[in-house]
């Protein structure tokens, strides 16, 4: 079990062993988070910049708390009050931050490939917190952690991802992770948002929601990514909800032990009935809890940690 990467840019380039190392290291950090003293000195003396150029609630706060728990110094970059608003480029912004001797940049950006670009032009470690419709690797890692924790395995599970696949970075990262780890992945949603080209990623594509969820062990719901759609991809939210939303009637036709996931933010009454979001089969908030341990693990590993055996006792 080992990790040799300086950056975490995507799931596509990770090996199964690397993914497993993150998940096992996160399990050790979850145990640390259940102690009376939750803080460890792993990043003492290191500085992390959280460069979120797109809105975020879960990922930003989870990274910030992870960094605090690892004893790092933290700069939360305020995009709205920054010189990006005066036309400074991302590269110049990042290089000026690096001139302050920072060690890590956690970046969320609307442009696919922005983290990869920064990894080429900076000496700091770069962690992708979501780039355009490309990837959201820490979301996929926390999703894998949560599935493994709840089901005991990932290989052989039927996982259905239902919603706006085309514009979703979570979908792409989850598909890479799930297929590498041996799950059987079904994608479902309107044909405009779930084109058959995704079959080339090793998934089954269907536009029949009842068929998609009937044998699922995990149903992972995605919201409609209005901010990335350049035109309307379906007639109305009401129609989407009636054709593809997870309603109580639909849930009743799934396996009794099928679990519901959603990366958030949830649009209640659109992709998911409000009561389902809060029911005992929903893992939504447990995903958020696990995100903390997973992001601690990622920061620990890109800082040179080799695996769970090195998590501070
Ligand atoms: N899941 C997720 O990325 O949520 P935020 O956009 O709130 O970070």
Outline the secondary-structure elements.
Blueprint: H1 16-32, E1 47-52, H2 58-69, E2 73-76, H3 90-98, E3 104-109, H4 114-121, E4 125-131, H5 137-151, E5 158-162, H6 169-180, E6 184-188, E7 204-206, H7 209-214, E8 218-221, H8 237-244, H9 248-251, E9 259-261, H10 274-277, H11 284-302
Parallel strand pairs: 1-2, 1-3, 3-4, 5-6, 5-8, 6-7, 8-9
The structure holds phosphoric acid mono(formamide)ester (CP).
Phosphoric acid mono(formamide)ester (CP) is lined by residues 56-59, 130, 136, 139, 263-265.
Q: Which key terms come to mind for this protein?
A:
single chain, 313 residues, alpha/beta, Rossmann fold, 9 strands, globular
Query: Helices and strands: which structural class?
Result: alpha/beta
Integer tally of domains = 2
Q: What characterizes the major β-sheet?
A: 5 strands, parallel
Q: What's the helix-strand series? A: HEHEHEHEHEHEEHEHHEHH
Total helical segments:
11
Strand content: 5-15%
Mean pLDDT across the residues is 95
Poorly predicted runs are none
Could you say what the CATH topology of the largest domain is called? Rossmann fold
Bound molecules: phosphoric acid mono(formamide)ester
Task: Give helix % range.
Answer: 25-40%
CATH class of the largest domain: Alpha Beta
**Count of DSSP E strands?**
9
Assign an overall shape. globular
CATH superfamily of the largest domain: Aspartate/ornithine carbamoyltransferase
User: How widely separated are the two ends?
Assistant: 18 Å
Q: Architecture of the largest domain, according to CATH?
A: 3-Layer(aba) Sandwich
**Widest β-sheet, arrangement of strands:** 7-6-5-8-9
């Amino acid at each position: 079990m080992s990790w040799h990467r300086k950056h975490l840019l995507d799931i596509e380039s990770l090996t199964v062993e690397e993914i497993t190392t993150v998940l096992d290291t996160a399990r050790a950090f979850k145990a640390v988070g259940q102690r009376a003293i939750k803080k460890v000195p792993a990043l003492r003396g290191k500085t992390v910049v959280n460069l979120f150029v797109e809105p975020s609630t879960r990922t930003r706060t989870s990274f910030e708390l992870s960094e605090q728990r690892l004893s790092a110094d933290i700069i939360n970059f305020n995009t709205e009050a920054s010189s990006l608003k005066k036309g400074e480029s991302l590269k110049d912004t990042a290089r000026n931050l690096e001139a302050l001797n920072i060690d890590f940049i956690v970046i969320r950006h609307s442009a696919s490939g922005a983290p990869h670009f920064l990894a080429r032009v900076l000496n700091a470690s770069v962690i992708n917190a979501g780039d355009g419709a490309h990837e959201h690797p820490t979301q996929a890692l926390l999703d894998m952690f949560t599935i493994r924790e709840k089901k005991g395995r990932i290989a052989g599970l039927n996982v259905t991802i239902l919603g706006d696949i085309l514009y979703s970075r979570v979908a792409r990262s989850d598909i890479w992770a799930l297929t590498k780890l041996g799950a059987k992945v079904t994608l479902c949603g309107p044909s405009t948002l779930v084109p058959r080209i995704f079959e080339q990623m090793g998934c089954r594509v269907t536009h029949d929601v009842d068929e998609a969820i009937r044998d699922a062990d995990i149903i992972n719901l995605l919201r409609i990514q209005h901010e990335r759609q350049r035109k309307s991809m379906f007639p109305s939210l009401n129609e989407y909800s009636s054709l593809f939303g997870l309603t109580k009637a639909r849930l009743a036709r799934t396996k009794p032990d099928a679990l519901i996931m959603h990366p958030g933010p949830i649009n209640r009454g659109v992709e998911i009935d409000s009561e389902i979001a809060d029911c005992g089969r929903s893992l939504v908030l447990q995903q958020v809890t696990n995100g903390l341990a997973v992001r601690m693990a990622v920061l620990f590993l890109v800082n040179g940690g080799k695996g769970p055996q090195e998590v501070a006792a």
